[in-house]
Amino acid sequence: MPRGARVKSSSGVYHVMMRGIGRQDIFHDAEDRERFIETLVRFKRVSNYKVYGYCLMNNHIHLLIKEEKEAISQSIKRIGVSYVYWFNAKYERCGTLFQGRFKSENVEDERYLLVVLRYIHQNPLKAGLVTKPAGWIWSSYNEYLSRYPLLVDTDFVLDLLHPHRKEAVEIFLKFMAEENEDKCLEYEDVKERISDEEVRRAVQKLVKSDDILAIKKMSRDERNKAIRTLREENVSVRQLARVTGLGRRIIEKA
């Protein structure tokens, strides 16, 4: 069934999520995250979008972004293609990195924009990675406290809070720290993890043999294509390694 077109935001603002295929990590070290932020900065000059917030988790990304001269889908495509090309070269892998097309929700009013921004900044906190938002350096939180933000258009949000910068920052800090039950955009994992027996049958079908170890005898391109097909069916790296006997590194590189 063809996917429906995205409903265009009347404000031009979107909360965007990108996640690793099969929930795999898309950032392995600080260099990866720095590269992604550099990519956002570089294509901001090309696409002229505005960034109001971001958070780079281990296996997913949140962006609060406003489209300008080009559609958000085109901007995200530029960002994703560039980062995946670099990531694949670094880790000697091929194929897709992100799960399907990105998810998004429209942000149509200023109140919800602030709620989404808080949700994004509290993501690492709620995941137990830090004890306060400022502790996660891979989000836009600390840019709001800087006089010279690298990527984020902080003036827009701070001007919503107060005409004077000092008071605006104080309101920002208080609002970002508030406990809440905000429910914003997330991935819904509607697929349950499949059993080892189901994985075996899927492998047998792909290798066209009852011997699942035949996957080891395939050419690298054919094997990688088979691995990617299985990963898209929500088969984890660990499970695939267990069933096929392939090394985790081989599966991750595919």
Fill in the keyword field for this structure.
254 residues, 2 domains, 4-stranded antiparallel sheet, alpha+beta, Alpha-Beta Plaits
Secondary structural class: alpha+beta
Q: And the CATH topology of the largest domain?
A: Alpha-Beta Plaits
End-to-end C-alpha gap: 27 Å
Strand portion: 5-15%
* Cα gyration radius (Å): 21 Å
User: How many helices?
Assistant: 10
- Major sheet strand order: 2-3-1-4
Supply the CATH architecture of the largest domain.
Answer: 2-Layer Sandwich
Mean pLDDT, to the nearest integer, reads 89
How does this structure look, described?
This protein has 10 helices and 4 strands. The chain has 2 domains: 13-177, Alpha-Beta Plaits (2-Layer Sandwich); 196-253, no CATH class. Helix 5 (154-161) crosses helix 6 and helix 7 crosses helix 9 (237-244). Strand 2 (50-56) and strand 3 form a beta hairpin. It has a 4-stranded antiparallel sheet with strand order 2-3-1-4. It is of the alpha+beta class and 254 residues long. It has helices spanning 30-47, 72-90, 110-121, 123-126, 154-161, 165-177, 196-207, 220-231, 237-244, 248-253, and strands spanning 13-19, 50-56, 60-66, 103-106.
Task: Break the fold down into its secondary structure elements and pairings.
Layout: E1 13-19, H1 30-47, E2 50-56, E3 60-66, H2 72-90, E4 103-106, H3 110-121, H4 123-126, H5 154-161, H6 165-177, H7 196-207, H8 220-231, H9 237-244, H10 248-253
Antiparallel strand pairs: 1-3, 1-4, 2-3
Task: Please sum up the structure shown.
The protein has 254 residues and is α+β, with helices and mostly antiparallel strands. It has ten helices and four strands.
